Amino acid sequence: GGDTWGQPYDGAYNLSTVARSRFEACVRTGIHELGHHVRQFIGGDLRQELRSVWDQAVQSWHAISRRSLEDEEEFFAEAFLAYFSHPAELRADHHDAYALIELALERVRQ
To answer: With 95 labelled, which of 7, 55, 79, 80 sits at a CA distance of 20 to 30 A?
Structure first.
């Protein structure tokens, strides 16, 4: 692998680097960026929930990826990507983030 893909999941900078190929890394980057767009539509109540979930992750240093600890926006985008690329791990390790993405997707579909 390279420094932009093929990296181990544990301790990854971001979830795109965990991809098995350059193409998969590109697709994951696109999903991450789509997560930023979806976050724009979630509304104030879910933004408050996002702040709370992110604060808990930062305080416990329990990250989806290192990048997810940078700010709420990156946390949401990485959680959004994890929802599609590592759903079982996200549900098990970051249940609140998983639930937040479920609510966000439900809201966007309305």
So the answer is: 7
Tens-digit pLDDT profile for residues 81-105:
999 999 999 999 999 999 999 999 9
Q: Distance between CA 64 and CA 14 in Å, rounded? A: 8
User: Nearest Cα to 78, choosing from 24, 39, 22?
Assistant: 39
* String of DSSP letters for the chain: -BTTBS--STT-SSGGGG-SSHHHHHHHHHHHHHHHHHHTTSHHHHHHHHHHHHHHHHHHT--SSSGGGS-HHHHHHHHHHHHHHSHHHHHHH-HHHHHHHHHHHHHHH-
More confident call, 58 vs 13? 58
**With contact defined as beta carbons under 8 Å apart, do 100 and 50 qualify?**
yes
